[in-house]
Design goal:
Its EC number is 3.1.26.5. By secondary structure, this protein is an alpha/beta fold. Helices cover 42% and strands 22% of the residues.
């Protein structure tokens, strides 16, 4: 499964209306697109509240690497995901961030599976 980077503001706003999974270093937003495209859309947001430009860019680099490693195997094809950085996220070990992301992705996949199997 391939990754596509979200670039339009409308994509980020649409993801904000989806599921929300807060974790210690970030918040994961998940929104199934509902189209036939299996590509996983991924976006990264780190506000100025988190720190200066160096801190924000470091956090985004860490998020991109986490996404490359964890998201293709997450089982969330055809969805848009957004990682929102939280203050102190850079202080968390990369391995711990990876575990948090895996946990959030499993919770999201479980929730989406329940929604799709529920009778309409």
């Amino acid at each position: 499964m391939s990754l596509r980077t979200l670039s339009k503001r409308s994509e980020f706003l649409a993801a904000n209306r989806g599921l929300r999974y807060p974790m210690p270093g970030f918040v994961l937003l998940v929104r199934p697109r509902g189209d036939s495209d299996e590509t996983l859309g991924v976006g990264y947001t780190v506000s100025k509240k988190v720190g200066n430009a160096v801190t924000r860019n470091r956090m985004k680099r860490r998020f991109r690497e986490l996404a490359r490693a964890a998201m293709p195997a997450s089982g969330l094809s055809g969805a848009d995901l957004v990682l929102i950085g939280r203050p102190g996220g850079n202080d968390i070990l990369f391995a711990d961030l990876s575990e948090h992301l895996d946990s959030a992705l499993k919770r999201a996949a479980k929730k989406l599976a329940q929604k799709s199997s529920a009778p309409s």
